[in-house]
Amino acid sequence: MIIIIYRESFLSVSEKDQFEEQLSVEIRFCINSDGYILECNKKGQALVERYGPYFLHFFPDHTACEAKDYLDAIMKSDDIVSALLCDKLSDRDLGTLYNGISKDGKIILVGYRTQMFTHLAGEIVHELRNPLTVIKGFIQLCGYTKEYDKYQPVILSEIDRMYTILENFLTLSLRKSKCQRMNPDEVCKSLISLLSAECVVNKVRLDYDIAYSESVCKIDLDKIKQVMINLLRNALEAFDEHTGEKKIMFRGSVEDNGYRFSLIDNGPGMETDVLNNLGKPLFTTKAKGTGIGLSLCKKIIADHQGTFCISSVNGKGTTVSFFLPFVSP
Ligand SMILES: Nc1ncnc2c1ncn2[C@@H]1O[C@H](COP(=O)(O)OP(=O)(O)OP(=O)(O)O)[C@@H](O)[C@H]1O
Ligand SMILES: [Mg+2]
């Protein structure tokens, strides 16, 4: 059974005028996989009375194909965000209208951004309050002791942390994507400079092996950089005193129909229960983690029509990779 929140753009303009009042609020349907409406709210009832109990019959001929594709897409979709949120949202907990997403019959079509934001906003306020308290304390201390040099690194690192939290939050917001066709190996080269600076500062050896590619992918470079920064930070934060020489390998490889970007670390890896929990929203094992990093990476890669993969051997290290499909040049 699927709950559909009606997507306004599928109605023709004239229909919109006629049903303006209905469309200004949520119209909810509960449908089966054939598109037969099992239940709906009051606003939905108005459409059912007029067009009958089949969801697809609501659409004028010229949008029928689009509507069918939409229905098929949400039936099949395994959108990572819905996967992430299916634990959190129950049928009763539907948020504000945004769009449709689905997962194997147990569908939730929700204003997930609203839901997520309400939740995240609380988290973010909470997360930002901690570094602010630390910064305030240290600045007060500087006032008493006049030892500015001593406290400056802590203050700066807390400010950096606040930037990270805000950056992540912004990426989850509705910022438009700026995709362009790019050679993936060129992308790798621009990522290397980013990775090497952080590795030098953290005394980690960085190796790389980038395969040349004639084909191109559609890439929003800023976002892919953000994925890399998140993955790199995870690797750096994972290293502990048991890791001998800390090493990170960055690999770019050509595969069938696409290009794979991999980041391999020789850190402690993950225990099975950590691996099982990855992908749950806000899951973290770190005292100061927000648990947004990987969810964000997965979302960005899904927006690129790519796939995301994590493998980890406890005690040996972790490999995180993502695959971006080639597009015609
Ligand atoms: N390379 C890695 N090696 C070991 N564990 C990892 C690695 N990458 C991720 N993890 C585990 O996955 C968890 C979730 O990572 P995620 O990036 O989503 O959140 P976080 O790093 O805890 O917080 P933040 O939102 O600040 O990134 C981490 O807390 C950590 O336990
Ligand atoms: Mg992280």
TrEMBL record:
EC number from the UniProt entry: 2.7.13.3
Pfam families found in the cross-reference section: HATPase_c, HisKA
Membrane spanning stretches: none
Source organism, top-level taxon: Bacteria
Chemical reaction(s) catalysed: ATP + protein L-histidine = ADP + protein N-phospho-L-histidine
CDD domains membership: HisKA (cd00082)
Alphabetical UniProt keywords: ATP-binding, Kinase, Nucleotide-binding, Phosphoprotein, Transferase, Two-component regulatory system
MF term (GO), any: ATP binding
InterPro entries named among the record's database cross-references: HATPase_C_sf, HATPase_dom, His_kinase_dom, HisK_dim/P_dom, HisK_dim/P_sf, Sensor_HK_Regulatory, Sig_transdc_His_kin-like_C
Domain Histidine kinase: 123-328
Full protein name: histidine kinase
EC class (word): transferase
